[in-house]
């Protein structure tokens, strides 16, 4: 391989570039990014940056010495031509490659009404510029902040608002915060955290419209329960959209769910044939995970971006690819509590507290699917997770027989209460996206408590 191109100059792209150089690649290395900034860390944006403990520019990642890469920043890729081996940029320039890594990640899902989204006071949070604008808006002391979506990002923003003494309402269409990622049972703990810290939490509630004044400034939000809420700042925290539009017509198996690749990070084409010169890593990838029966996963975690990028870069150079088999792992800090997870809670049907005390906000919960362990979540108990990772990797029986000193005498599993796709406002950060490279969206199982009929339109 004489030339390698990495499309996506963020965490995954940088780690892939470093791995290529560390493993002996001496050819031409190009990184293409749509933002004008060198790679930076995104998790601190909704935590330290909004809280004022770090600046947006202070999140820049330090690249390894000797990278010797060509950086094409501020000009997004618009097309991939596999026949001529060219990446086309927005300005018309074309960059040739022997092998290319797709690491274009995700962007914040916007508010669906463009006119309302353009109101002064309506924000999303994904990049450095977003964080700088929202930080300034919060520093101005708005009378009330509305966070639309109770996922991890929305909850972290709400936490920062309360830390700053700001009144904040969280509107979540599902039954609890974090329900889309951890299920309703675990989400009920998050709901108590919100309310104990003074958040006006509205669950099973949809924001129907955002209202502005004559000057185009946000003034109110109309809720599905009929309430009209006066707000000056609204943060749209509806999850992420994968950046795959630029691959239309490329011949790859790519759609809004991501780019399909094998466990070796090699992209599939539209005929479900694995390619030898196109690789995928990070938030934009969908791949069959060996620990989850080959289900195609899409994972928006920092840890996955780092490890998958390293695997992809290794396989770009190797004769025999190695699989990416790391378990999804995630952490969040909100309302003074650390929440860490390992595995895939979104496929669980049951959950049980295995250590600690929910009442004391220090516990571990294990998630099960069809009688085996598939995930665990630790609240202010991070040291316990490695043992649970081993249980998940070995497909240990659920509930696990830990005999922990701080465990319950008789573990009592309860339904996990995972939301049907589209029920919660936020989206999970790790989810199953299909059965195979060309499979259509898997049919959703109807909750048996849901009626099969609906009232007539009137």
Question: How would you characterize the overall build of this protein?
Answer:
It is a single chain. The protein is of the alpha/beta class. It folds into 3 domains: 3-107 and 241-317, FAD/NAD(P)-binding domain (3-Layer(bba) Sandwich), CATH 3.50.50; 114-238, FAD/NAD(P)-binding domain, CATH 3.50.50.60; 336-427, Enolase-like, domain 1 (2-Layer Sandwich). Helices cover 19% and strands 30% of the residues. It has helices at 11-22, 48-51, 114-117, 128-139, 152-163, 179-182, 184-196, 302-317, 385-393, and strands at 3-7, 28-33, 70-73, 77-81, 86-89, 94-96, 99-102, 106-108, 122-124, 145-148, 168-172, 200-203, 207-212, 218-223, 228-230, 233-236, 240-242, 254-255, 258-260, 266-268, 274-280, 285-288, 296-299, 329-334, 337-343, 350-357, 362-369, 372-379, 414-415, 430-434. It has a 6-stranded mixed sheet with strand order 3-2-1-7-21-20, covered by helices on one side. The chain has a 6-stranded antiparallel sheet with strand order 24-25-28-27-26-29. It has a 5-stranded parallel sheet with strand order 9-16-10-11-12, with helices on one face. A hairpin with a 7-residue loop joins strand 22 and strand 23. The longest helix has 16 residues, at 302-317. The protein is globular, with a radius of gyration of 22 Å. Mean pLDDT is 90; it is low at 437-458.
């Amino acid at each position: 391989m004489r030339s390698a191109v990495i499309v996506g100059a963020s965490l995954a792209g940088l780690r892939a570039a470093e791995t290529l150089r560390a493993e002996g690649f001496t050819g031409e290395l190009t990184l293409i990014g749509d933002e004008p900034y060198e790679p930076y860390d995104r998790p601190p944006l909704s935590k330290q940056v909004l809280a004022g403990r770090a600046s947006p520019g202070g999140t820049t990642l330090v690249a390894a010495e000797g990278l010797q890469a060509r950086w094409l920043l501020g000009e997004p890729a618009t097309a991939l031509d596999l026949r001529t081996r060219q990446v086309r940029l927005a300005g018309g320039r074309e960059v040739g490659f022997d092998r290319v890594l797709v690491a274009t990640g995700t962007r914040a899902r916007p508010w669906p009404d463009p006119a309302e989204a353009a109101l002064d006071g309506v924000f999303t949070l994904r990049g450095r510029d977003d964080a700088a604008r929202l930080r300034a808006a919060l520093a101005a002391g708005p009378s009330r902040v509305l966070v639309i979506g109770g996922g991890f990002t929305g909850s972290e923003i709400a936490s920062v608002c309360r830390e700053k003494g700001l009144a904040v309402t969280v509107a979540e269409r599902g039954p609890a915060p974090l329900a889309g990622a951890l299920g309703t049972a675990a989400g009920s703990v998050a709901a108590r955290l919100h309310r104990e810290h003074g958040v006006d939490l509205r669950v099973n509630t949809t924001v129907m419209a955002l209202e502005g004044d004559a000057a185009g400034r946000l003034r109110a939000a109309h809720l599905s329960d009929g309430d009209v809420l006066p707000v000056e700042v609204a943060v749209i925290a509806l999850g992420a959209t994968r950046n795959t539009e630029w691959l239309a017509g490329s011949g790859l198996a790519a759609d809004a769910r991501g780019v399909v690749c094998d466990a070796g990070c090699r992209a599939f084409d539209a005929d479900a044939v694995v390619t030898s010169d196109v690789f995928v890593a990070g938030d934009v990838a969908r791949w069959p995970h060996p620990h989850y029966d080959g289900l195609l996963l899409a994972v928006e975690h920092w840890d996955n971006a780092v490890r998958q990028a390293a695997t992809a870069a290794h396989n770009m150079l190797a004769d025999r690819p190695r699989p990416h088999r790391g378990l999804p792992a995630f952490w969040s800090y909100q309302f003074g509590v650390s929440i860490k997870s390992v595995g895939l809670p979104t496929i669980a049907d049951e959950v049980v507290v295995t250590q600690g005390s929910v009442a004391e906000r220090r516990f571990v919960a294990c998630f099960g699917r069809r009688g085996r362990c598939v995930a665990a979540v630790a609240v202010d108990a991070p040291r316990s997770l490695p043992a649970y990772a081993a249980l998940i990797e070995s497909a240990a029986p659920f509930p696990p027989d830990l005999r922990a000193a701080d465990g319950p005498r008789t573990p009592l599993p309860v339904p996990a209460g995972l939301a049907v796709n589209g029920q919660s406002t936020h989206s999970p950060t790790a989810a199953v996206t299909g059965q195979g490279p060309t499979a259509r969206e898997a049919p959703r199982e109807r909750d048996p408590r849901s009626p099969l009929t609906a009232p007539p339109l009137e």
